[in-house]
Structure formats: structure tokens, C-alpha cells
From TrEMBL:
InterPro entries: 6-hairpin_glycosidase_sf (IPR008928), 6hp_glycosidase-like_sf (IPR012341), Gal_mutarotase_sf_dom (IPR011013), GH65_N (IPR037018), Glyco_hydro_65_C (IPR005194), Glyco_hydro_65_M (IPR005195), Glyco_hydro_65_N (IPR005196), Malt_Pase/Glycosyl_Hdrlase (IPR017045). Residues 692-736 form the Glycoside hydrolase family 65 C-terminal domain. This is Alpha,alpha-trehalose phosphorylase. The keyword Repeat does not apply.
Amino acid sequence: MIDKFLIQQQDFPIERDPGFFETIFALSNGHFGTRGSREEAAFSHELVDEGTFINGFYESELITYGETAFGYAKEHQTIQRVPNGKMQTLIYRDQVLGRDGEILEEERKLDLKKATYERTFIWLAAGVKVRIETRRMASFEDPHLLLIETKLTNLSQAAEPLQFKTCLGPEKTEADQVSDDPRKAQARGNLHYEKLSEHFPLLETQTNRSRLAVVVGKKTTVKDEATEKQLTFDEANQTYEETFSFSLKPEETKVCQSAIYYGDFAPVTAHQAVSPAEIEKQLNQALNRFDNGFEEQAAHMSRFWEASGIELTGDDQLAQGLNFNLFHLYQAAGRDGQTNIAAKGLTGDGYEGHFFWDTEMYMLPFFIYTQPEIARQLLKYRHTILPQARERARELSIEKGAWFAWRTINGHEASAYYPAGTAQVHINGDIAYATQLYYETTKDETFMKAYGLELLIETARFWTSFGFFDEQDAFHITGVTGPDEYTVLVNNNYYTNRMAKNNLEAAFQYADKYWQQDGYQALFDHLEVKEEELAAWKKAAVNMKLLYDPDLKLTLQDEAALERKPWDLTTIPKENFPLLLHYHPVIIYQHQVSKQADTILAEYLFPDTVSIEQQRRDYLYYEKITTHDSSLSRSIFGIMASRLGFQEKAYPYFNSTALMDLTDLQGNTKDGIHAANLGGTWLSMVYGFAGMTVKEDGIHFEPHLPEQWEKLAFSIQYRQERFKVTITQEDVTVEKINK
């Protein structure tokens, strides 16, 4: 029987890559994350990806181009690995756990209800048997804390002398390796470490070029007065080592508890915000109320599942995959208004730890409807990097408005390949769409006044500067790339133009609404907004070029969509997917082939603007040429299949979406979870199978429940009220919940 809230190693094929388990067992809380590696991994002969990351803590380096041009991105940004606080081992005479002996009866599990990683095993070394039980958690209540508990029980017949060693220091990693896979991190910085304390482990980590610093501290206690303790510092490896020596009687259990503090990063020159004494005080408090920390974590998760969980009855495996995805999505989100959600969350450094459009289009709806406070902070991050977006626009000859970076951490463009980076200007429309969705769902007037309206105005200004009117007054946007990265630098990409149209309409609507309202005139004056500018937005939106072939009755992805060479995807060997790893871009670009949902994504977002019959024709055409090489694709095709009555297609698409990481569908779960797909799972359930749409008179549901399912239930928050939606094969009920 499948436990819907428990992910266990024993349920997976034994041949799975160790990195796969390190990803799925990873823990994070939006501030920091640490992979699910074994505690003694640093003492083994094998290199293991133990990565611990702090959201937004990055190093930069100059991008080297063989041939460069004006306006190319100048610097890489790569999330950095901070000191590893998980390192610990057990020593019996000359035997070291991780290096010597055998591990027997190992069990590893991720408890989704408690947000804990737990492991139990027996270590057999030189005739001595010790049962070791560990549990760890990244605290949601105090996002700076990682707690680890280890219980040691002597299963031998005599008392044995043991040493428990716990460490804090840089992760043992391979040297930088250049990969042809653009999804992998390409560089890791040469970090500088400084010892800050003589009486407890406390390290400052500094980057060289980005000039950021962060402090990591650790305190450990072993509950026994007879324990001897020794603290040393290994200068060569920049690592603190703390050793506890004791004798363990037969069947006696020793409890070891560690609290690790991951601080807030800041510029090197301004970093000493929290003193070593204050950090030590916080760590001591965490140790003194250690069990309370785990209890508070469980209570926090209980509230999360009540507000954000989805109950699925009829397929336990899919329900487990759904819960896994929602859990990882929740723990990936930055909550401080200064950070966002990286493409791999905080489970790996794939895609360099960058923030993309994925947040706004795939992940934010989940937070907007179930955790609006977090959604607000994620959008606030976009406002914090608005100055960089304005700077980028001026650099690229855009007179007004903002041009947001395609991939970034610090707000500056980090994509070295502009055809699939800077040219994806639809990110402006994506940010505007998410801003509008948040406001219309929450009616958060303080957000709109402080952040939202400015985002809408500056993104709308971009379109009127970047696009142009032809002689017939049609508005064109040319030389851009849509979501489909296998088709680049095209004219009038349907998705881009549709998002721009919505952006312009929203900016006009809200600017017009607030034009005469108290408290907004200062913003309009500061931005120098004129009434004629509003009229220009409206004109561009009304006359936006949206391509359609009347003979084929087909919505066109771009002007050359039908001029490219057909490519029968069934003739391509399975091992040649994803195409980007096996074919030169020029070969891919000359074909009618799509990496992911593009036109179909636009029709998913704006279903009332295209007839159902047209959507069906478009769906069947684009499905044939889409490879789904991007993890962002299947959820959208599944949602549209549900809406359009293609139930035989919807269920397999959702199967792939819900189980993508647990089945390693993309073949690279070891590099980190697929964060956008996690959000796509929620979209599939709520927008797809539940058939939720939002109209002027409120929220509507038109369910498409698969015949295999008995019940689908979830909660949503809409304009300060929470509702419980329950869908069965016979009925739909919506119940108002008292918060």
C-alpha cells in the first residue's frame, strides 16, 4: 500500500543514481536548502553531491565570448555552495563510518507531513554493531536553522568506546567541469573562508567578484555528562571538527543533536549584522528546545496541507506524486521579497540557480490562490530589480520602460545565448500577467500602490518602444523568441504578442482607474506618465498582430511557422531527445518542431478569446510537432486536453507531470527538482481537471474528472475568503471556510 505522504528509498529501483535520492530527499525553506545526502558522505572515498545553498547567494564572473557584440550579457551568476553542516561520522578504534565497515538494513524516507528527512541503519565494523537513527529538518518557523538529531544504540554484547565526530566546512567537490548540457551549472566560484570563533564552529564565506558574505555556525550537544569533547580546526580544509568520546553499553542509546545556523548574506563591507555571540545564543536556544522545533515544524506543515493540499481519491501513486510536488514547490519559494524560485529550487545548482519566467507563469498561481503572502513576496522581488531592468532597456536602445532579464539572480542579464535569452522579451508580459492575477485575486491595494502599478506601467512602456505600427496601423513585435526555444528570432510570435496585448490592456485599465485617486498622483508624476501615453497603450493593444491562416484555419505561432521544413518526430531515435543535446541549433531552427507549449500556452491563459473549435484544431496541430523536451510543456498540454475533451490524452500527460521527478522522466532529477513542473502539477489539477476559470462574476468550475478518480478536493483563497472545493463523479460543492 502506498503512503501518500511518505517517500521511501525502498520504493525505487536499486540501480537509481545516488544523486537522484539526494534530490528527492532534499530539504529547504526558501532561505536555504540542503540535498538529501548521507551524513557520513564526506568521509567516504566517493564524491557525493551534498550541496547546501542559500537562496540568492551567488558568485559572478565575466562571460568570455569567441565573438561578441554590443549589448551581450557581461557576467555569469552562479549560486554558490555554502559550508556543509551535515557532515558527521562515527568512529570505532580505526574504523570510520562512511569509509569502513558495512551498512545494513538501511531505510531512508522523506516525511511530507512533518517536512523531515529520516534515516535508520546498522553499522557493522570490526565486529561491533551500532544502530544509527537520524532525522533532520530545515525549519520553516526559523528559516536560518537546520536541525539534525542522531541516536546511537549499541547492539553488541559489550560496552564499546566510540567517537562521534561532527564537522562544519566547505563541501568536498570535483573541480569545475565544462558540460555540453546547458541545464547544468557551468562554474563554481573560488570562495574564501574565515574562521570566526575559537570555541564553536563559525565560518564566514566570501565570494571574490560579487563581494558577498554569509556566516554559517553550528553547535552540537551529546546528552551525557561522561562525554569528552574536543574542538579543532583543520586549516588545510578550512573545516571545524568537533569530536565527542564516550563508552556505550549494550542496548544503551546516546542522543546527539546539532543546530546549524545559515545567516543572511550581505555585501562584504556591510556584513557583520549579527554578532558571533548572537548566533551562538540562537543556536543554544535551538538546542534547548530541540524537540519543540520538530513539533513546530509538524504544526506548520499541518497548516500548509490544510490551506494548500489537494486530496485525490482513486489513484494513490498519483496522489503521492502530487503531494511530493506541492511539498517541494512550497519549500523552494523565497519569502523575503529579495529572492525568488530558482529553476531547481534549492535542491541543486542546475541552471546556475537562476530565476526565470517559470515563477510567474507556472508557480505563482499556486501561491496566489493558497499562500498569497508568499506570492506577494515573490512579485516584490521583481520590483526590487526594476532599476536593473530599466538600465537594461536603456542599454538596448529602449527609450522608456523596463526590459527584465531572461535569467538572473541579481537582476542583470546572465544569458550568454541571446536568441534563447534576451530575445525572450515575453518575460515582461509574464511578469505583468502575474501582477494582474495577484491583484485581481487578492485585491491587495497596498501592493498595487507600492509595487504592482509601477510594474505594469514600466512593462507596458517597453512594448510601445520595442514594437511598431505598420501603414495599416497593425502593431508588430519582431525579432523575438517565444516560449518555444527551438524557434528563435521570429516576427510576431503569437504568445509574445498575446502577452504584450494583455500587458498593455492591464496597464491602461489600472492607470485609468487610479488616475484621479488620492495617493497615486505622486507615482504618476514620478514616472512622468501622460494621458497620451495611456492612449498609445490602448491603441497598440487593440491593433496587436495575432497571426491566423484562414485557409488552414490555424493560429500561427509566428510569420514563418509554415515555411520551415517538416520533421517527422517519430523517425528520431529515442536516445536523441532532448534535441538540444544532439543537434546543432541551426538544424533544429530550420524545422517545424517545438520544444514546449507556445501558442497552446497562450490559449490556455486566454481561453475566452479563441473558440473551442479553433483551440482543438490548434491543439492537434501543435501537439504533433512538440517534443516536450522542456519540463514546462506536458502540464499545459494536459490542461488543454482536459478542457477540450481529449480525456484520453489528459490523463497520461498528468501522469508524466505528477511523477516527473519521482520517475526521473527527464533523466536529470539528480541535478535538482523541476520547479516549474511542480507548479504545473497544481495547474493541471485546478485549471485542468477541476476546470477552474475566473470571470467578472467570480470563479467557475467545469470539472473533467477522470473516470479512475472518485474525488478531488482542494482549497483556494479568493479576495480574503477561503473556499473548499470538492468534486466527485456526481457533484461539485464549494464551501466557504472560516479562516
